[in-house]
Amino acid sequence: MDRVTSLRDLRQKVLSWRRKGLKIGLVPTMGSLHTGHLSLVKHAKSRADKVVVSVFVNPLQFEDKTDLLAYPRTLEADIKKLSSVNCDMAFTPDVDTIYPNGMKGQSKVTVPTIGERLCGHYRPGHFEGVATIVSKLFNMVAPDSAVFGEKDYQQLLLIKKLTQDLNMPIEIIASETYREQSGLAMSSRNQYLSSDERMIAAGIYQMLQTVKLQLHQSEQSYTELCTEAKQVLKERGFAPEYVEICRESDLMPANHQDKALRIMMAVKLGETRLIDNIACHLD
After folding, report:
1. pLDDT tens per residue across span 51-60
2. CATH T-level assignment (fold) for domain 2-175
3. Beta strand pairing call for 2-4 and 89-91
């Protein structure tokens, strides 16, 4: 596996692959890799000849600088894990490589509407940072395809819209959420949880399943279902930010005429913010 840090070396290697007619896949990450990330790499490998994995903690998407400083960084361990799944290149740039002129005057990419709801409401500027770094990585790597996990479903749809709106010739591939045995969605932020909190956190997926079952069986309004779910979450020790039943296609609030739904959830458990979602397709 090649490991490069400079844009020049990245582009030279990608160009050599292009000259051989090889298809290139990209998996953008912020490091602290777990089995879920590695499943994205494997998915990318099944759809491309060569796979580039970027490892970069993007400061532009952190409004809370304390959160940025605390974000886990395990680069050497990440490199070993990527080698184990036959990744072709790890792109591990520093901040100056990505933002050579600093971030204060950095041009930014805004994806309207979808970036303003749900997590966008609770984390102002977050999706602008995501859209900007992904656009930069797409321009740097020029991949044929890029793989993103459904755990960050709002991010996935935002990047799909970004790619379509800016006419980027890149296929955005969704990969299923990878879960621990308890049902807890794998996330780098799970490292922040104590052993007791980790057991409690399994209740997020349980609640999503409960709401899904109610959607199939109940005639309650969606607002009532979400309000009840938030109350149960509070009783179990969570601080819910939102529980929403959305249209799967664009994450706008769903109504009873919509059949393809996504149940979206964000909660805090102690100091740790966790998100998850599941699909619900009604007959």
Report:
1. 999 999 999 9
2. Rossmann fold (3.40.50)
3. parallel
Q: Where are the alpha helices (DSSP H) in 20-150?
A: 35-47, 65-70, 75-84, 95-98, 119-122, 126-141
**Where in the chain is CATH 3.40.50.620?**
2-175
Q: From the candidates 34, 37, 121, 256, which is the catalytic residue?
A: 37
Domain 188-281 has CATH 1.10.3720.10: no
Which residue, 233, 240, 279, 237, is CA-closest to 260? 279
Reference 172, options 72, 20, 47; nearest CA is 47
pLDDT for the residue 283? 85
Q: Using alpha carbons only, how large is the chain's radius of gyration in Å?
A: 19
Element (H, E) at 163: helix 153-165
- Is there a catalytic annotation at residue 281? no
Name the residue among 167, 177, 179, 173 with its Cα closest to residue 135.
167
- The residues of the chain scoring below 50 in pLDDT are none
Report phi then psi at 27, rounded to 5. -125, 100
Q: 54 pairs with which residues across the strands?
A: 28, 91
Task: State the Cα angle at 218 between 214 and 221, rounded to 5°.
Answer: 95
118: Cα separation from own chain's centroid: 14
User: Position of tokens 């993007």?
Assistant: 58
